[in-house]
């Protein structure tokens, strides 16, 4: 059985690491914030003192980190992954980062005699906990086939997107649609409730009609109950939309809907909603229309 180092035990990483342990893999975990590994240790994980320690004896190292700056620290920093990576091992980054950084990580990994895959995920916290994530993977098919069993221990679908960097491009394009969809749902609810229709009645219509979406399915109940506990934070979605905006500029792709959604998330973040679930963008509309969209009084 492959030995796995897992770095980053946040909202997504914790559930992913737990599923690997439950599937019988020998897992060594590291998190920058102390204490996050305690329950995983009870499940059977070992705890490392640094990214290098999590890497040194691992066949596969998986990272799930918040942003480009944090990824650079984990890979290139003192006691980072690149100081301890073994020739013949595989590094898998499941974070949402810029495609250019994914390519840089791949090139540096190759210079160390190892293999790199950018493999971001979709599904948010419920899917991470249930082991039903979807992976979009950049890298060689040969490298993917060699570790596919590990990805399927954490997810239910693995899609090869092409060479290194393509997994990251796919994730940014995907999350562009997510950001637009949740903003559209919030705006539609604002119109309906301002017109005297209950949020629950309108959401039922949306889910039954052609305006239905995965966001309506996943976030509708949270909006109706005013429960914005984090499955995927508004701040992280804003980060992804900013990355997508840079990417689309580089690709010379006009993205008016992306820019509108990004602006909406920037406004919401400035209102102090960043640490709440991304569906809390609805709260900005509630402030503007002067009434609750949720059915909660």
Automatic annotation (TrEMBL):
InterPro entries: 3-OH-isobutyrate_DH-rel_CS (IPR002204), 6-PGluconate_DH-like_C_sf (IPR008927), 6PGD_dom2 (IPR013328), 6PGDH_NADP-bd (IPR006115), HIBADH-like_NADP-bd (IPR029154), HIBADH-related (IPR015815), NAD(P)-bd_dom_sf (IPR036291)
Sequence intervals crossing the membrane: none
PROSITE patterns named among the record's database cross-references: 3_HYDROXYISOBUT_DH
Domain 6-phosphogluconate dehydrogenase NADP-binding per the UniProt entry, residue ranges: 3-162
UniProt entry keywords in alphabetical sequence: NAD, Oxidoreductase
Pfam families in alphabetical order: NAD_binding_11, NAD_binding_2
Residue ranges occupied by any 3-hydroxyisobutyrate dehydrogenase-like NAD-binding domain in the UniProt entry: 165-284
Family, as annotated: Belongs to the HIBADH-related family.
This protein's name: 3-hydroxyisobutyrate dehydrogenase
Source organism: Paenibacillus glycanilyticus
């Amino acid at each position: 059985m492959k030995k796995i180092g897992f770095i980053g035990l946040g909202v997504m990483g914790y559930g992913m690491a737990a599923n690997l342990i439950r599937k019988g893999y020998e897992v060594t975990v590291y998190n920058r914030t102390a204490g996050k590994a305690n329950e995983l240790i009870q499940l059977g994980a070992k705890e490392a003192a640094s990214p290098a320690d999590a890497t040194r004896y691992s066949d596969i190292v998986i990272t799930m980190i918040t942003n480009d700056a944090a990824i650079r620290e984990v890979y290139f920093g003192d006691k980072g992954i690149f100081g301890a990576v073994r020739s013949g091992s595989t590094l898998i980054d499941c974070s949402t980062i810029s495609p250019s950084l994914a390519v840089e990580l791949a090139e540096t990994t190759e210079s160390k005699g190892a293999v790199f895959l950018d493999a971001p995920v979709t599904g948010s916290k419920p899917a991470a906990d249930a082991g039903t994530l979807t992976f979009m993977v950049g890298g060689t098919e040969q490298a993917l086939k060699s570790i596919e069993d590990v990805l399927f221990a954490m997810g239910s679908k693995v899609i090869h997107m092409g060479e290194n960097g393509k997994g990251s491009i796919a994730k940014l394009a995907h999350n562009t649609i997510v950001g637009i969809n949740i903003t559209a749902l919030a705006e539609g609810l604002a119109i309906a409730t301002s017109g005297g229709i209950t949020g629950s009645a309108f959401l039922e219509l949306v889910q039954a009609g052609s305006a239905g979406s995965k966001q309506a399915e996943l976030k509708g109940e949270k909006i109706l109950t005013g429960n914005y506990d984090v499955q995927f934070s508004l701040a992280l979605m804003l980060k992804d939309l900013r990355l997508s905006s840079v990417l689309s500029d580089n690709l010379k792709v006009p993205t008016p809907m992306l820019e509108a959604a990004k602006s909406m998330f920037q406004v919401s973040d400035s209102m102090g909603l960043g640490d709440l679930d991304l569906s809390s963008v609805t709260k900005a509309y509630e402030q503007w229309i002067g009434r609750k969209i949720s059915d909660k009084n």
